Structure formats: C-alpha cells, structure tokens
Amino acid sequence: MTVSISTSKLTIKTMLYITQQQKDAVNAHAAAEYPNECCGAILGHFDNGSKTVRDILPISNQREDSAKHNRFLITPQEFMFCEKTARKANCDVVGFYHSHPDHPSAPSRYDLEHALPVYSYVIVSVAGGQPDKMTSWELQNDRSMFNEEQIQ
Amino acid sequence: MITIQLPTALRAFTDGLSDVQVEAATVDEALRQLTEKYADLQRHLFGDDDKLRSFVNVYLNDEDIRSADGTATAVKSGDTLMLIPAIAGGRV
C-alpha cells in the first residue's frame, strides 16, 4: 500500500490487484462491445481496503439499444446472479467494470451519482475500437468524489 | 421484527452486519429506522430530495415493492426486506 499526501489531508491509496489475463478479459469485452459500453462484475477478495481479483464476470448491458453507447446497466436480477456466482466460487463481488467508448477512463458525474461505496469501479477507455487506458476508482464515503485506486 | 438484508457494499456502515432487524409498519418506516440506527447509510440509500435513490431496489419477501405500494407498502413481523442495487453508469 502506498501513502500519498494531498495539500490538506493524508490519503491512503487503495490497491486493486489484477492479473494481465484478467485485464485482457476486460479489454476483450470492451473491444467486442464497441461502440457500445460493456459492463461486468469483478469477483475477488477484500483485504484491508485493497482487493485481489479472482475472476471477471461479463454481464450483458441491459440499457436500451439507443443508450448503450454512453450508459450501462446491471439490473438487480443480474446483481443477484453476480453475488451467487461469487459465493459459489468462495469469493465476493469486489467491484464492477465498464468501458468508455471514445472517452477518457475517468468517472463521469453520472458514474458518481450511481456509485456505491466500497466497490472498485474499473473503467477502460476504448479509442476507435482499441482498448486504451484502464483505471480503477472507489467512491468516497461522503459521495463527494471518487478516489483513484492503484492497479497492480 | 422486520429483517433488512444488506448488500456487501453497505455492510461497512452496519458494523459488518448483513442483516439488521427493525420494528416497522411500512417499508419506509423500516428504512428510516435503519438509517436512524446507522446514520452513514442515509446518503447511500436516499438522495438529497430524501427519496430512495433510483438504483436502490427493495424486495419484500422476494417481491419488488414497486409492484406493490412502493415505500408505503405495509410490512409485518417476520417479513424480510432485501436491498438490491442496480449498477449503472456511463461516459457522460
């Protein structure tokens, strides 16, 4: 874990441990769905605020076709499916991923408004069909902002 | 007693408890009791307009309360309320 100091307070950056193979799975899903957004669950373990990824669970984007280019939705039913799949594998849902087609991998205002704390929100930007930068974010408990996690 | 089951992400605000028990006559009352007991949950369940956030879904004994009377739906002792989020976002 690394410690970075901002101007006003001490902040501890959390880590997301993810293998290259798991990153490849997210990137492949993002490329396959381009120009639409892809989404899925990240299964793994929580460990002192950091997370270790065990598996990537692609989910079909449930938004209507006309909105899939800039929105994703995992329904409550799909959420329960993710939880059940994680339990069977003796792990937890530690976060979710989605793509930003032709857009930076920074979370949007819409992402912020719809986020839950604790989970990692992995975002991969896709430029012209090619997966580009991957980032991971965790909602601050007061809902005011996301804090970027370190991906390793 | 009404049992409220919480998703993993919200257990950080209930001292790690997955199930919280409250006494209430409606879904709204049950959720208010939950947030009175665990105040940090308030902002994640309810928006600035004090309405349940759109991505928070409540199931009463496995049935979506939207198909009943929403948060005004009556509850009785022995009922289980499950809070199940939808996960949403997007680039703009």
Would you write up a description of this structure?
The complex is a heterodimer of chains A (152) and B (92). With 152 residues, chain A is of the alpha/beta class. Chain A has one domain (2-151): Cytidine Deaminase, domain 2. Chain A has helices at 20-33, 76-88, 109-113; strands at residues 2-5, 10-13, 15-17, 39-47, 50-59, 72-74, 92-101, 120-127, 130-139, 146-151. The radius of gyration of chain A is 15 Å and the shape is globular. The model of chain A is unreliable at 1-9 (pLDDT under 50). Chain B is α+β, with helices and mostly antiparallel strands and 92 residues long. Chain B has a single domain, classed as Roll (Ubiquitin-like (UB roll)), CATH 3.10.20. A five-stranded mixed β-sheet of chain B has the order 2-1-5-3-4, with helices on one face. In chain B, strand 3 and strand 4 form a beta hairpin. Strand 6 (72-74) of chain A pairs antiparallel with strand 6 of chain B.
Shape of chain A: globular
Domain tally of chain B: 1
Total strand count of chain A, please? Answer: 10
Assembly state: heterodimer
Overall strand count of chain B: 6
- Count structural domains of chain A: 1
Architecture per CATH nomenclature, i.e. the level-2 architecture of chain B? Roll
SSE arrangement of chain A, N to C = EEEHEEEHEHEEE
CATH superfamily of chain B: Beta-grasp domain
CATH topology of chain A: Cytidine Deaminase, domain 2
How is the largest sheet of chain A built, in terms of strand order? 3-5-4-7-8-9-10
Order of H and E elements of chain B: EEHHEEEE
Largest interface: A-B, 35 and 23 residues
Structural category of chain B is alpha+beta
Q: What are the low-pLDDT stretches of chain A, counting only 5+ consecutive residues below 50?
A: 1-9
Distance between the termini of chain B: 43 Å
Output the CATH class name of chain B: Alpha Beta
